[in-house]
Amino acid sequence: MPKMKTKKSASKRFAVRPGGTIKRSHAFKRHILTKKSAKNKRQLRGSVSIHAADVHAVRAMLPFV
């Protein structure tokens, strides 16, 4: 049986909270911010939980977390 490895791209994008939920950051907040409104940029702050449909896939990418 080969070694289980963590998908490093997933480990950089997702973090597991102490309760077991997985958090992610918002998209569309990296560049080309001048044309976006202040309200839009403000609402993209912070982190949110991933959708329930994606939990199984993300957990498979992060076996040791």
TrEMBL record:
Report the gene name.
rpmI
One GO cellular component term noted in the UniProt record for this chain:
cytosolic large ribosomal subunit
Q: Which UniProt keywords apply?
A: Ribonucleoprotein, Ribosomal protein
Keyword Ribonucleoprotein assigned to the entry: answer is yes
Q: At the top level of its lineage, which domain of life is listed?
A: Bacteria
Bias-annotated ranges (Basic residues): 1-15
Cross-referenced InterPro entries: Ribosomal_bL35 (IPR001706), Ribosomal_bL35-like (IPR021137), Ribosomal_bL35_CS (IPR018265), Ribosomal_bL35_sf (IPR037229)
Q: Which GO terms describe its molecular function?
A: structural constituent of ribosome
A Gene Ontology biological process term: translation
Q: Which family does it belong to?
A: Belongs to the bacterial ribosomal protein bL35 family.
Alphabetical list of HAMAP family matching this protein:
Ribosomal_bL35 (MF_00514)
Instruction: Tell me which Pfam families the record gives.
Output: Ribosomal_L35p (PF01632)
State the residue spans of region: Disordered: 1-30
Record-given protein name: Large ribosomal subunit protein bL35
